[in-house]
Design brief:
Helix content: 55-70%
Distance between the termini: 111 Å
Number of strands: 15
Strand content: 5-15%
Shape: flat
Length: about 900
């Protein structure tokens, strides 16, 4: 623009001068305001015409261009005009109420709540919330948190949980695979409809049949027992409908289970002390198949087996099925033996009775103090015993007889004279092949024992003489006073003679020997005068004091060795790891070091103090000094050991985890484990010493009390200390047992695919039984005509509160003889809801029974008859025990 054009500009035109915009005047405020209002109205009109998505994009673009002050203005505007509907309760309520609300959350929910805000994170990590959850599982914090520290119990819980082997369903499917292939939605819908129709039809048929059944007998009677009386067209059995009907009444359901147990076949237990299920007379299979009388076949054969027989367990194993066997102790009386026979027979008479005991051709060593022979056969008590024993056996006209087996006097498999059954009596009671095996083993065992007795007889004789003399002398002088000894010259003379023999054997005690000879000569010459007895008592007291001193010194020496082993853990393992942590070359974190060594260092401090007290006492030791008060004081501080034993499983798992995850720690252990400094032991082996120490304490304290006179002041304190140590040792043994049971359950859970969690309080495994699962082709016909098909192999895991059923498979590895057994979980049934039904043997099936739960039913069979009866006996006792709780 030229200079002439700029000369004619007026001030009005200058007011329309613009800046940054061709539309907004720069200095004219009124025009600026007007144009701004028009543009706002235009944008508002456009905003009204836009869709919701377009409005959101427009607002998003506007907010991106806003500064922080402008965004704060928008926030304040909303907070003034919009009412707040929700408030964080943790900022309004008192803290203890907020913590009480958070205490109802699970650990997973607490961790999720900690991610909401900083106030929630602070509250959810408080120790008062996490400590009960750790203590519930026995996870104790291995150190005491400081006053300003929080979140220690949460970190301890997370550390303990991380050691557990938990798998999500997706991870388990990736590792173990799935049982079935996935189905489409249409296939699943059709299968559900088919199952629904089938279930409805079964319920209708069962309900109709139960109406007919209830008219004849109560619903809890098994169809097996009534089959010979009613013989219905379709065999009645406990159904799902009956179970659902009585399920609402706990008393009826309990009666249902108990009744199913009572109708099981029973037989006598081999031990004779506990009742094994006794075989029902209806299904008893007699041994003599050629007997014409049916009443005789109902009488069992009975065999008494002495526990004095070598390897009597093998004799018990050779007893035939159907023969009632009782093992009796050799130390019982004749009345107790008759009681065992009466209890085993349960009111029945035996077709024949055998007695398997030791003896020779002239007499039978039946019981301790009762050798049956020609000389004492007519004694009143012996004659009365045989008369009562004969009343339990059938008469001679009915084929009853009594057989004696004296295997150490003659062979039980030799020829028998006058056998009226055409075979040896041993074949009536025993399987001859198994009994022959026992006979060979017993002969070999007897020859071996004769050789051992011949070689060890001189040593045992000398040892017996020494021990008996010392025990008799110690007992007499502990229990008898001087007055009794003066009045009993024979006792004093015997003690003097024994002291003389002991003094000859101990060459180091020349003074004691001379005094003993002098004592004996004075006693023999002066007829046991008072001075000789005083010298005799003084000698024994001196000997007892010396023994007591030696035992106390041994206690000090063993305590010193024990403390040295604990110091090895501190010097070889803890100190280098702590130094590496301080020098910024950490091998383990501070938390892991605290978990591993905090408890063992406290134990070291406690035992170091105990060792110092023992050393100070022995420096000025005399027979009048006491050691019991020191041990009692130590026993009152055993809570230090409690923390160690509670955290001991966590310590071992931490060592294994750090060994696997941290290469530096793995190298550290490899360099220090099993060296000369560590006595060729590893870190876990060194940590075993505290648990083994209490057995040594008990043995040493018993020895100290044995050589402490009854009137000594230390006697009471020693008894108190022994009781403390014994009580704490029982606590350790119970903890070991619980850990072993938990590990056993974990092993079972690991080997069974798809198995639910088995670890519960007071649960333990009783027995595992391998059976074959059968399928009945037609259940409408009678039991004797039913055909069964073997479909699966099952393993039954019996616990004290439940029965776990799993399928069993066997896989073979190429070029190897060994096979691998795999298990797949099927179902678990609570014992108080489990029904058992026997299936009588027929030509199509043997050793079969039925297990019926609320949802499933299994027809099972064992390989041999003994396994069936043993399994049913154990199962019945377990069910009764679970229902009595």
């Amino acid at each position: 623009m030229s200079a002439e054009d700029s000369s004619w500009r007026t001030p009005e035109m200058e007011s329309f001068h613009t800046r940054f915009s061709a539309w907004t005047p720069f200095s004219n405020k009124s025009l600026n305001r007007q144009l701004f209002q028009e543009r706002v109205a235009l944008i508002s009109h456009w905003f009204d015409l836009w869709t919701n998505k377009q409005r959101q994009e427009f607002l998003f673009a506007i907010f991106l261009r806003c500064t922080k002050s402008q965004l704060r203005f928008v926030q304040d505007w909303f907070s003034e005009r919009m009412q707040v509907a929700k408030v964080d309760f943790s900022t309004v309520l008192p803290r203890f109420i907020s913590l009480y609300i958070f205490s109802f959350l699970s650990p997973k929910d607490l961790c999720a709540a900690a991610q909401v805000s900083w106030p929630w994170k602070f509250l959810t990590e408080q120790d008062c919330l996490w400590m009960p959850k750790c203590v519930k599982f026995g996870w104790f914090l291995p150190y005491t948190p400081t006053d300003n520290e929080y979140g220690a119990w949460k970190r301890h819980y997370v550390a303990c949980v991380s050691h557990l082997d938990w798998l999500t369903p997706r991870e388990a499917a990736a590792i173990y695979g799935t049982l079935n292939e996935p189905k489409t939605e249409d296939e699943e819908l059709l299968e559900r409809q088919r199952e629904k129709c089938l279930r409805k039809r079964i319920w209708e048929e069962i309900a109709l049949r139960n109406k007919e059944l209830f008219k004849v007998r109560p619903p809890w009677v098994s169809g097996t027992c009534c089959s010979s009386v009613l013989k219905p067209r379709r065999q009645p059995r406990l159904s799902q409908t009956v179970r659902e009907r009585v399920g609402s009444h706990e008393a009826l359901e309990k009666q249902l289970v108990l009744t199913s147990l009572e109708i099981l076949p029973k037989r006598s237990n081999i031990s004779g002390s506990h009742s094994y299920p006794l075989l029902s007379k209806k299904y008893w299979h007699g041994v003599h198949k050629n007997d014409d009388s049916s009443s005789y076949a109902l009488r069992p054969h009975f065999i008494l087996i002495s526990s004095r027989i070598p390897a009597y367990e093998m004799v018990v194993e050779s007893v035939k099925a159907g023969v009632v066997s009782v093992v009796y102790e050799h130390s019982v009386t004749l009345e107790s033996l008759l009681y065992l026979i009466e209890k085993a027979l349960d009111g029945r008479k035996a077709q024949s009775m055998g007695i398997f005991s030791d003896g020779d051709s002239r007499e039978i060593n039946l019981l301790q103090g009762y050798k049956i022979g020609v000389k004492n056969l007519l004694r009143p008590e012996v004659r009365d015993f045989w008369e009562k024993l004969g009343s339990y056996v059938a008469t001679e006209e009915e084929g009853g007889h009594v057989d004696f087996f004296v295997p150490l006097g003659a062979s039980v498999l030799s020829d028998w004279l006058g056998s009226q059954w055409g075979k040896a009596p041993s074949s009536i009671y025993f399987c001859e092949a198994k009994l022959q095996t026992w006979s060979s083993f017993a002969d070999f065992l007897e020859e071996t024992l004769k050789t051992v007795r011949k070689q060890l007889y001189p040593l045992f004789k000398e040892l017996q003489k020494s021990i008996s003399g010392r025990m008799i002398g110690q007992f007499m002088f502990d229990t008898m006073g001087m007055t009794n000894i003066l009045n009993n010259q024979e006792t004093a003379q015997a003690l003097a003679d024994r002291l003389m023999e002991l003094s000859k054997e101990d060459s180091e005690r020349s003074v004691v020997e001379d005094n003993s000879w002098d004592t004996k000569s004075r006693l023999s010459k002066n007829n046991l005068n008072f001075e000789a007895l005083i010298n005799l008592e003084r000698i024994l007291q001196k000997d007892s004091a010396e023994k007591r001193t030696r035992v106390v010194r041994e206690l000090l020496q063993s305590e010193r060795k024990y403390v040295q082993m604990l110091e090895i853990v501190r010097d070889v393992y803890f100190a280098p790891l702590k130094a590496a942590l301080s020098s910024n070359r950490a091998i383990l974190s501070a938390a892991n070091i605290q978990i591993l060594f905090s408890d063992i260092l406290q134990i070291l401090s406690l035992n170091r103090q105990f060792l110092d007290n023992l050393r100070d006492r022995l420096q000025e030791w005399s027979p009048a000094h006491c050691v019991g008060e020191i041990v009692t004081k130590f026993g009152s501080q055993l809570n230090t050991y409690t923390n160690f034993f509670n955290n001991y499983p966590v310590i071992l798992k931490t060592i294994e985890k750090c060994r696997e995850m941290i290469p530096a720690f793995r190298t550290f252990l490899k360099r220090h484990d099993k060296t000369i400094v560590t006595k060729m032991l590893s870190l876990p082996e060194l940590l075993l010493y505290p648990s083994r120490r209490f057995e040594e304490y008990l043995n040493l304290l018993y020895a100290v009390r044995l050589h402490t006179p009854a009137e000594h002041v230390d006697r009471g304190d020693l008894t108190t200390a022994i009781d403390q140590i014994k009580k704490y040792k029982s606590y350790i043994d119970q903890m070991k047992q619980n850990i072993n049971m938990k590990d056993h359950l974990s092993d079972i859970q690991r080997i069974i695919w798809g198995c639910p969690t088995l670890s519960e309080v007071n649960r333990y495994l009783i027995r595992v039984q391998d059976v074959a699962q059968l399928h009945c082709c037609d259940e409408e016909i009678s039991f004797s005509l039913r055909l069964y098909e073997h479909i699966h192999d099952l393993s039954l895991f019996l616990f004290n509160d439940a029965l776990l059923v799993s399928s069993r498979g066997t896989s073979h590895t190429p070029f190897e003889r060994t096979s691998k057994t795999t298990y797949q979980f099927i179902a678990s049934v609570a014992l108080h809801r489990l029904l058992i039904e026997n299936i009588p043997d027929s030509k199509y099936v043997k050793n079969a029974f039925i297990l019926q739960g609320p949802k499933y039913k299994w027809i099972c069979a064992t390989e041999v008859e003994d396994e069936k009866f043993l399994w049913l006996s154990v199962l019945r006792n377990a069910i009764k025990s679970s229902m009595e709780k």
